[in-house]
Design a protein that fits this description.
This protein has 164 residues and is an alpha/beta fold. It is built from 7 helices and 7 strands; from the N terminus they run αβαββαββααβαβα. It has a 4-stranded parallel sheet with strand order 1-2-4-7, with helices on both faces. Strand 1, helix 2 and strand 2 form a beta-alpha-beta unit. Belongs to the enoyl-CoA hydratase/isomerase family. In the C-terminal section; belongs to the 3-hydroxyacyl-CoA dehydrogenase family. One of its GO terms (biological process) is fatty acid beta-oxidation. Keywords: Isomerase, Lyase, Multifunctional enzyme.
Length: 164
């Protein structure tokens, strides 16, 4: 939602401006990182406020390490947010993907550019063109995530942020 996008943008800007903040961790609520955009918003005649692409670029440009703590699903725009992060930790049961292609849409927040740079063109093309959900173990093998944990993902992400 636009509310979530605005909160993410505001939080990132505050963290970047605050010298006491050494790293940023992005997570979802209720055991889910993000299922992406609400498709009902695509038909809105006017879209005010933040859009996802520039927010992901803001994440990517942060001089402070940004860690994604992925639980549940990181799909569509949710995966694109995670791709903008410098590090990604996933719970063993997490799934990631760009399923919007299954309804005829292309990922719109530069996921089609970031994913191949991260995991290589052949693997990225498979994920981009099929819309399949990649389980955490496979995501680790592909290099999509840096670590897979069975424990609390947020705590693991904080430990990683402290290490880097």
């Amino acid at each position: 939602s636009l509310t979530v996008l605005q909160a993410l943008e505001d939080g990132l800007k505050r963290a970047d401006a605050d010298p006491s903040v050494k790293a940023v961790m992005i997570c979802g609520e209720n055991g889910k990182f993000s299922a992406g955009a609400d498709i009902r918003g695509f038909s809105s005649p006017t879209r005010r406020g933040s859009v996802l692409g520039p927010i992901i670029s803001l994440i990517e440009r942060s001089e402070k390490p940004v860690v994604a703590a992925i639980e549940g699903v990181a799909l569509g725009g949710g995966l694109e947010v995670a791709l903008g992060c410098h590090y990604r930790i996933a719970h063993v049961k997490a799934r990631m993907g760009l399923p919007e292609v299954t309804i005829g849409l292309l990922p719109g927040a530069e996921g089609t550019q970031r994913l191949p740079r991260l995991i290589g063109v052949p693997a990225a093309l498979d994920i981009i063109t099929t819309g399949r959900h990649v389980p955490a173990a496979e995501a680790l093998k592909l290099g999509l995530v840096d670590e897979v944990v069975e424990e609390n993902t947020v705590e693991a992400a904080i430990r990683l942020a402290n290490r880097v």
